[in-house]
Amino acid sequence: MLTLYKPGTGWLHRMPAGPKLLLILAVVLAVSLLPARWTSVPVAACVAFLGYLVAGLGPGMMPLHELGRQLYALRWIIGITLVSQVIFIGFEPAVANTTRVIAAIVLAALLALSTRVTALLDAIERGLRPFERLGLDSQRVALLLTVTISTIPVLGRRAAEVRDAQRARGARNNPRTFIIPFLIVALKHADELGDALTARGVR
Amino acid sequence: MIESGIRLENVGVRLGDTDVLRDVCVELNARTIAVIGENGSGKSTFARLVGGLLPRTTGQLRVLGLDPARRAAELRRRIAVVFSNPDAQIIMPTVAEDIAFSLRSDKLRPAELQARVETAMERFGLTHLAQRASHDLSGGQKQLLALCGAFIRNPELVIADEPTAYLDARNARIVANHLLDGTDHRLVLVTHDLTLAARCDQAVLFADGGLAAIGKPAEVIERYEAVLRC
Question: Cα separations (Å) of B43 from A95, B5, B110, B203?
Answer without folding.
Answer: 61, 18, 40, 12
